[in-house]
Amino acid sequence: MSSFTSLIKESWVEVTENVTWPKFTDLQSSSVLVLVASLIFALLVGVVDLAFKSGLDLFYSSF
Transmembrane stretches, by residue range (predicted)? Predict the structure, then answer.
């Protein structure tokens, strides 16, 4: 059990003293970039899905 508590204590020291955390503005700009990229990708997938649906509907209606 002492090895577990030692692990927790050493991990806390590592996180609080040795890790360099990014600034909030950097995180905010990265989050906005991910959001915009996700929206663009979702729109692209939606357009491709609509094109396939329309193409298959046209194909199946010809029989």
Answer: 32-52
| For the chain, the helix, strand and coil percentages under 3-state DSSP, each to the nearest 5 | 85, 0, 15
CA dihedral 49, 51, 54, 55 (to 10 degrees): -110
Residue 61 has pLDDT above 90, yes or no: yes
Running DSSP on this structure, what letter comes out for residue 1?
-
pLDDT at 1 over 80: no
Task: Judge if pTM exceeds 0.70.
Answer: no
Q: Which of 63, 61, 43 is nearest to 51 (CA)?
A: 43
Question: What are the DSSP E strand ranges found in 1-63?
Answer: none
